[in-house]
Every structure is written in C-alpha cells, then in structure tokens.
Amino acid sequence: MIRTASVSRWFGLLLGLALVAGACAPAPAPTAAPTPIPPTAVPPTAIPEPTAIPTPVNPDIILATTTSTQDSGLLDVLLPAFQAATLYNIQTVAVGTGQALKMGEEGNADVLLVHAPSSEVTFMDNSFGSDRRLVMHNDFILVGPAGDPAAIKGLSAVDALKAIYAAGAPFASRGDDSGTYKKELDLWKKAGLDPAGQSWYVETGQGMGASLIIASEKAAYILTDRATFLANQDKLQLVILSEGDPTLLNVYHVIIVNPDKWPKVNLAGATAFADFLVSPDGQALIGDFGVAKFGQPLFTPDAGKAEAELGL
Fold it and tell me: Are 131 and 146 contained in the same domain?
C-alpha cells in the first residue's frame, strides 16, 4: 500500500510540473497577414498628337473671282476655313467674270471661281485651263422699284425686258463683261432688242453690289444674282419682280489655270483650293451660307452633279 501511494504521488507531481511548464511557455507568434499584391499598373490610354498640317512649299495663291462671291459674303466664310485647313494664303481679285478669265489667259491668277459657262468652255477649249469643276449655283433675278412702272411683276425674264423697253423705264446695266452682264445681253438678244444708246439705259461699269446701289438711287430695274441682292437688300429701295425663270440659273465653276502655258502657276495651291470647294466640308459651308440670316441658302452646292442636271 505504501509503494502504490508513492507512485501515485510522484505521478501527480510530474503532471503538475508539466502543466506549470506549459503555462509558462511563450505564446506562439500570430500568423502575419499576407502582403497584398498590387494590381498590375495599366498605362493611361495614349492621346494621339494632332497631326501637324504641313506648310506648303509655295503658300501663296491668287484667286480671280466674281464680285458676286465677294459682295454676297460667301468668300468671308470659305476662305478662312480653307486657309485654316491648309495653311495656304489666298489673295483675292474680285472682278467681272470676263476680267477673271482674262487674268487666267494671261497667267495672272492661279485659280478662278466664275459663272459664265459658255465663256468658260471657250477658255478650256483654248487650253487656258487644266481642270474645271462644277461647284454651285444660285439664280438671277430682276429687281426694281416697288412702284414697278413697267409692270413686269410676275413676267418671264424676256417678257419683262420687253416691257421695260416699251415703257422706256430706267434700267441699270453693269456693262463690265461680267457673268451677270453676259446673262443680261443674252436675255436682250432673246427678246430681240438692243437697249444700247437708249437714254433710260445706264451702264454702271461697277461690280454687283455697287451697281445695285446705283439702281436703287435711280429707281431703276437691274438684273442681279439673288445672293448679292439679299445680302444688300437692307440698304436698297428695290424689290424682286421677276424670278424663277429657268433661263436665270446662275452656275459657278472653279478652274485651275493651265501650268503648261504658265509654269509659274501655283498648281498645288490651286488644286488644293479646287479640292476644298468640292469636298464635303466645302460643300456644306456653301449649302449653309445664308440660312441663319435669310432662312434660305444663298447658293446650292452642286459638286458631283452632271452638267446636264443644271441645263448646261
């Protein structure tokens, strides 16, 4: 009995020591949290640099055009847009179409914007132009004093001229070999009449805007393109009396002067300008011109149309 008790006492003592040793052992170190792995850096989307417009080798272009494109304000819209897009500089000479074509014949212009189709065809047939493209049209109208002394309101253009001739009513003519003057002479010819030398028939020798002012001051009838009339009507005592006649269509082409005849012609610049006029951007500017102010476009864009669609 004594031996058994002794063993039990030693066993208890050993167990107690083991428990004390366990209690005194250092606590295990806590497991460290995993280090987060940073996401792969994604580079920002690169924004491409705007393409620089190359500076033309020869940036200067001479444009010979009609007074109607200037007096209507169309050039004030087209030229800045073209120059900003291409870095070309345009020097504009606004004269009658006949004078503009003469400048081309003499190599004094690089590109023409004109509106006398039959004269343009002759220009091309004589190899003065290397490229001719349809750009746009508007129309001619006969305007005059609201009192309408010759009673032409609603008449066709030819009948209106016959009535003016019979009444001896004042009529202002540009008399400057312009496209408008050429159209007027054609209408007098169709009427079988020659007004030259009549006391009531006055030749202004001026551009369209200036001629309209003279007609207004003299209470005279005058043939004008619609765009220039509308752009200046606030300072005129004139109203539209004859319009809508198919013979009054006013068609514009751009012509590149032939560098084979005139090597100094800026062919690259002239081509760039012609390309711009018939491009979607150029045609949109033409089609929008006048809408905000007059509620109607002053020109109709025609690039890509067949000449026959315009009766040419």
Answer: no
CATH of the domain at 103: 3.40.190.10
Of 233, 248, 263, the last residue of a domain is: 248
Going 50 to 56 to 62 to 64, the CA torsion angle's sign is negative
Q: Which residues span the domain enclosing 201?
A: 139-248
Q: Are strands 171-173 and 300-301 parallel, antiparallel or unpaired?
A: unpaired
pTM: 0.80
Cα dihedral 265, 267, 273, 275, rounded to 10, equals 150
Residue 92: what are its φ and ψ, rounded to 5°? Answer: -100, 135
> 43-98, pLDDT tens digit by residue?
555 565 656 888 899 999 999 999 999 999 999 999 999 999 999 999 999 999 99
